[in-house]
Design a protein that fits this description.
Layout: H1 2-14, E1 26-36, E2 43-50, E3 57-63, E4 75-79, E5 82-85, E6 96-101, E7 106-113, E8 120-128, E9 134-136, E10 140-145, E11 148-157, E12 163-173, E13 177-180, E14 185-190, E15 195-203, E16 211-222, E17 225-236, E18 243-246, E19 248-252, E20 255-258, E21 296-299, E22 310-312, E23 324-331, E24 348-349, E25 353-357, E26 363-367, E27 370-374, E28 382-384, E29 401-406, E30 411-417, E31 423-429, H2 431-437, E32 441-448, E33 457-465, E34 469-477, E35 487-494, H3 495-500, E36 504-508, E37 529-537, E38 540-547, E39 552-559, E40 592-596, E41 599-606, E42 616-623, E43 629-635, E44 641-649, E45 656-663, E46 670-675, E47 680-683, E48 693-694, E49 699-702, E50 713-724, E51 731-741
Parallel strand pairs: 21-47, 24-48
Antiparallel strand pairs: 1-8, 2-7, 3-6, 3-8, 4-5, 4-7, 9-11, 10-11, 11-15, 12-14, 12-16, 13-15, 16-17, 18-39, 19-36, 20-32, 22-23, 23-51, 25-26, 26-27, 27-28, 29-30, 30-31, 31-32, 33-34, 34-35, 35-36, 37-38, 38-39, 40-41, 41-42, 42-43, 44-45, 45-46, 46-47, 49-50, 50-51
Length: about 750
């Protein structure tokens, strides 16, 4: 009867349990640990270990050494009181035993050795590894009040299978007590490369600039198997607002290069360096007043510099708008492959165009790893390889490039991001040098990360300028920033020093003061200060300023209406989600910013929500002196998704110009331009292929005034995808240069 009971127990232990698939990876949950027989009565070793999940597991016993010596002939191993192997399973010819086992949350092994002295067993319990690989993304946190802390933690699936029925069963914060959500929390499924955000509220005695750890643990399923996870993110609560801090300073000597032809650095773009550095915490919902008028989309045909300008005034929901003049809309031929297959993704198209023009028609344009120049207003463009313009010394070249033209010093400013040698090349050249040397003569400065007291990585740069300074910005953090030490840094350099071409003195901020500004771009067209902003939480913008007259920078919190800055999606006709990358980066970063008169305009991509059926653009206007919210508006449509806004200000009218991307809902991704208030945008490209990454920025600048167009035009750079390159079967990037705005008559004062 006893033997019968034991047999039933063994059958129950193994019921529904099979060994890990022969091709599956396994990992030990106990051991390997060796047990050696010594003299005396039989020895029993007892071990306790914990395990979570129901995946297939197995007990692995190695008898003796690899050469067959030291084996035992009598032993037994029990799991949770049930004998798995006994004396009859061992002899000098048995070297390895593998048996499937079922585990509980807390398990006990008993190993008994009864044979001759010096024999040994090595015991391991191993389980099948999950094809899902969950990790913690970059957290966000907001000190809502001294007793309430909001947190947001993305759970990212870096694996190859979908995590099903993801459930958070515990959410723990050092120094805090969970107020919401109620546990357990069902998080749904997370596909490969997907993510979901766990939003939590904690009570406690919290203070700014204090460190905390947030841990979310729970379970998920893959097929019939259940797995467990426990993810921890460390963070520091940001400084309180309002606040300020002194600028740091560093001096950097200049270099001069003419002719290029340097060997390029080694390519290293297999990984995605545009990681998330901040997740916007979810605050209690604040309703806004949605913009009543949707934005319609019209198309612009090709317009070359040699043809007459095109004047458009199509009907909009408000009737006939103010006319739009298009002087140029043409492709930049040297950029036909810009940004394709970036970051190791064969479907990615990250052209990231930037550029600027002079009043005389000299243009310097870039697109990810490409550059080109024109001296005839864009009729022809000549390619330049950015990899070979500068010597490979302290900084090489990777990808992101930003261009400005500063009329007051008659210089193009070119910022190029480093790669294996992180940092930036900051270069300046006169339009005359561009024309004379074909874009190969520059005065430049090596801006290594160490100059800014930073040992990590710089990414996603931007440039702006005022009357006195050039402003620069970038994300600063570890190369694959996910959990901590991620922030946004802004610097300034006197324009006069750039024009002189000697040593420059750079004032710069501490990126740890601005983690919520991760991915932000600088405010354009601000004459006497730099401004930038980020989401402290879903109902507060933190606005930063660096005034020319001060050696400090400051920040203020501004209440805004709620918007969704996670879970973006917009599918093209061929089934690709052109917003696939947007959820992780740049997400809701404030990438559009400009100043007109006393108004600061900030814009960001927002996901679909209960008010807007498609992803859209949120835009606010603040008083530049009091930071009071003047308006919050949206660029939206039920027929299209809108994202990646760039803003600039019309020199004649003060109107805000738009450069943005749109698509989805039966439409391919495309670039468009427009002017806010018309409720109409104008598509400049004609994509016919989808992509799973379409970004990460487009550009708009004021076109310098000329006799014919005295400040009424914008210069924009955008891109589409789909036209084929003659003789090559693969598709091509369609980068466009667009010169558009109001008619010149709008500049005339009656």
């Amino acid at each position: 009867m006893r033997a019968s009971i034991v047999l039933i127990a063994v059958v129950a232990l193994f019921a529904g349990v099979g060994p890990p698939d022969a091709h599956a990876q396994t990992m030990p949950v106990f051991g390997p640990k060796q047990y050696t027989r010594t003299a005396g009565p039989p020895q029993t070793f007892t071990e306790h270990f914990s395990h979570c999940g129901t995946q297939a597991c197995q007990l692995v016993i190695v008898n003796g050494n690899a050469n067959g010596a030291g084996r035992v002939s009598s032993a037994s191993v029990s799991l949770n009181g049930v004998q798995i192997v006994g004396p009859s399973d061992f002899n000098q010819n048995v070297g390895r035993i593998v048996i499937p086992v079922g585990l509980t949350d807390d398990d006990t092994l008993a190993i008994t050795l009864a044979s001759g002295v010096a024999g040994s067993l090595t015991v391991t319990v191993e389980c099948a590894t999950s094809p899902v690989d969950l990790s913690a993304g970059a957290p966000g946190d907001s000190l809502f009040d001294s007793a309430t802390l909001l947190t947001a933690l993305p759970i990212v699936n870096d694996g190859t299978a979908t995590a099903q029925n993801v459930t958070a069963k515990a959410i723990v914060l050092t120094g805090g007590t969970l107020s919401s959500p109620n546990l357990p929390v069902s998080l749904g499924s997370i596909p490969p490369d997907g993510s979901v955000v766990v939003n939590s509220t904690f009570s406690g005695a919290f203070a700014a600039v204090t460190a905390h750890s947030l841990t979310v643990s729970g379970t998920y399923a893959v097929g019939a198997a259940t797995y467990c996870f426990a993810l921890t993110a460390d963070f520091t609560i940001p400084p309180a607002a309002p606040g300020s801090a002194p600028l740091h300073q560093v001096s950097v000597p200049s270099n001069r290069v003419i002719g290029g032809g340097f060997p390029p650095g080694p390519p290293d773009m297999d990984d995605d360096v545009n990681g998330s550095g901040w997740t916007v915490p979810l605050a209690p919902f604040v309703a806004g007043v949605p913009t009543a008028t949707p934005t319609v989309v019209n198309a612009i045909p090709d317009v070359s510099p040699s043809t007459p300008s095109l004047t458009l005034a199509p009907a909009t929901p408000l009737g006939a708008p103010l006319p739009i003049v298009v002087a140029i809309n043409r492709g930049i031929a040297p950029f036909a492959s810009a940004g394709e297959t970036n970051c190791g993704d064969p479907l990615a198209v990250c052209a990231e165009p930037s550029g600027a023009t002079t009043a005389e028609g000299v243009i310097w344009a870039t697109a990810n790893w490409s550059a080109a120049w024109s001296t005839d207003g864009g009729s022809t463009f000549h390619p330049v390889d950015p990899h070979t313009v500068f010597p490979l010394t302290t900084i090489d070249f990777c990808c992101d490039q930003i261009v400005q033209y500063v009329p007051s010093i008659d210089r193009f400013v070119w910022l190029l991001q480093g790669n294996l040698l992180p940092g930036y090349h900051l270069a300046v050249a006169s339009p005359a040098d561009i024309a004379t040397y074909g874009g190969l003569a520059w005065t430049y400065w090596n801006l290594t990360t160490g100059l800014f007291n930073h040992s990590g990585w710089f990414d996603y740069p931007d440039l702006a300028f005022g009357d006195t300074y050039l402003y620069l910005s970038w994300n600063a953090g570890p190369q694959f920033c996910k959990n901590k030490d991620c922030g946004h840094q802004v610097a300034r350099i006197p324009l006069a020093q750039l024009q002189a071409g000697g040593t420059i003195v750079i004032g710069y901020t501490d990126p740890n003061d601005a983690p919520m500004a991760w991915g932000a771009h600088l405010t354009q067209n601000s004459s006497d200060a730099a401004y930038w902003a980020g989401h402290k939480d879903s109902t507060h913008l933190r606005v930063f300023s660096m005034k020319d007259s001060e050696d400090t920078y400051s920040w203020h919190d501004v209440p805004v209406a709620s918007s969704q800055t996670f879970s973006y999606s917009s599918v093209t006709p061929d089934g690709l989600d052109w917003m696939g990358k947007l959820t992780s980066f740049p997400a809701g970063a404030v990438v559009g910013a400009t100043r007109n008169f006393n108004g600061l305009w900030f814009a960001w991509s927002a996901a679909a929500d209960g008010t807007f059926s498609q992803p859209h653009i949120e835009m606010v206007t603040l008083n530049a002196f009091s930071y009071e919210l003047m308006q919050q508006v949206q660029i939206w449509s039920d027929n299209y998704a809108f994202a990646y806004p760039a803003l600039s200000t019309n020199a004649c009218t003060g109107e805000v110009g738009l450069s943005l991307e749109f698509g989805g809902n039966g439409h391919y991704e495309n670039h468009a331009v427009g002017i806010w208030g018309d409720y109409a945008i104008y598509g400049t490209t004609r994509s016919n292929l989808g992509t799973d990454r379409y970004g990460d920025y487009v550009t708009i600048r004021p076109a310098p005034p000329t006799a014919a167009n005295p400040g009424n035009l914008f210069a924009a750079f955008g891109f589409g995808y789909g036209a084929t390159i003659p003789g090559i079967t693969r598709p091509a990037t369609e980068v466009r240069y667009i010169l558009f705005g109001r008619p010149a008559s709008f500049c005339l004062i009656p």
